[in-house]
Amino acid sequence: MRFDETYSGNVFIKSHPTYEDAKAVLYGMPMDWTVSYRPGSRFGPARIREVSIGLEEYSFYLDRDLEDVKFFDAGDIPLPFGNPAKSLEEIKTFVRKVLADGKVPVGMGGEHLVALPVMEAVYEKYPDMAVIHFDAHTDLRTDYEGEEYSHATPIRKIADQIGPHNVYSFGIRSGLKEELQWAKENGMHISLFEVLEPLKEVLPTLAGRPVYVTIDIDVLDPAHAPGTGTVDAGGITSKELLASIHAIAGSDVNVVGFDLVEVCPVYDHSEMTVNAAAKFIREMLLGWVK
Predict the structure, then answer these.
(1) Which reaction equation describes what this protein catalyses (predicted)?
(2) Predicted local distance difference test score (pLDDT) of residue 148
(3) Dihedral sign of CA atoms 29, 126, 148, 145 in order
């Protein structure tokens, strides 16, 4: 695996030219092999990079510039089309290398299943890891239509490994009754509908701990993010998600990796979703990569 050049031509705005001295590594996971409704998220990472050129490099929120953060955009990981198992192996191999080199992995999806091998690799390095999860959906199924590895299962699978009490989900408004019951019975923190205030209550309890953050763009209401595979009405605003990102940035948690997934450009005719995603990634890089 080579890190002296990116896998693809376009890079996120202000990407550092070399891997070696970068603090964080941005990469795409272009996979949507298990989606149950609308495919197309495999094109998300490339389009987010393309629209990032329209971003300002400076954040009014954080008083910080992308010049201040050494991150390297490695491009999209080449994944075997239609092969979930092999794709997950490739992602984990990539992220293990990034972590071994002392860098923070920053992923762009792709369906939400791509977050699972990343979280597993981070857990190998940080066995006391907690997960903060923003999503419209619980993603706590043991399988979906008989498929064990599905975009509906990654949070259940990581919860089974790190313990449900170490998983904190926010903005949830859709899923099976059995999923919600399992979460409550097993000590998982799950906040229905709301994000910011419950998050602020939780963050002090995670002070000093390594935390992985995974954001499904459909936590936003479809009015703010129509370009996603499984839209679900009643979500939060872009302003609320930005405030949540900044709340984490201002806390004492140690963010050791993060991702943003489920952006589908084909349904994003106004490009509202990809532009919002690019801004969120900028704010996460500026706020979470110290």
Answers:
(1) agmatine + H2O = urea + putrescine
(2) 85
(3) negative
Buried b (16+ CB within 10 A) or exposed e, 228-260: bbbbbeebbebebbbbbbbbbbebebbbbbbbb
**Is 137 labelled a binding residue?**
yes
Tell me what pLDDT residue 9 has: 55
Question: CA-CA distance, 184 to 181, in Å (whole number)?
Answer: 5
The reply to whether 216 sits in an annotated binding site is yes
Q: Which of 92, 129, 125 is nearest to 107 (CA)?
A: 92
- State how far the Cα of 64 lies from the Cα of 39, in Å rounded to an integer: 36
139 is in an annotated binding site: yes
Q: Which domains does the chain have, with CATH numbers?
A: 24-288 (3.40.800.10)
Query: pLDDT per residue over 225-264, tens digit each?
Result: 999 999 999 999 999 999 999 999 999 999 999 999 999 9
Round to whole Å and give the CA distance between 42 and 114: 10
For residue 106, give Cα distances in angstroms to 152, 200, 273, 281, 290.
Answer: 21, 23, 18, 9, 13
Question: Please, are residues 198 and 240 in contact by the beta-carbon 8 Å criterion?
Answer: no
The residue ranges of DSSP E strands in 97-200, in sequence order, are 104-109, 130-134, 167-172, 189-192
Mean pLDDT of 184-208: 98
Per the structure block, which two tokens stand in for 91?
């992602």
Partners of 108 in the beta sheet? 28, 260
Neighbours of 193 (CB within 10 A): 13
| Closest residue by Cα to residue 183 from 217, 230, 146, 135 | 135
Name the CA radius of gyration of the chain, rounded. 17
d(CA 152, CA 184) in angstroms, rounded, equals 18
Decide if 63 contacts 247 (C-beta within 8 A): no
Residue 106: strand pairing partners: 26, 258
232 labeled part of a ligand binding site: no
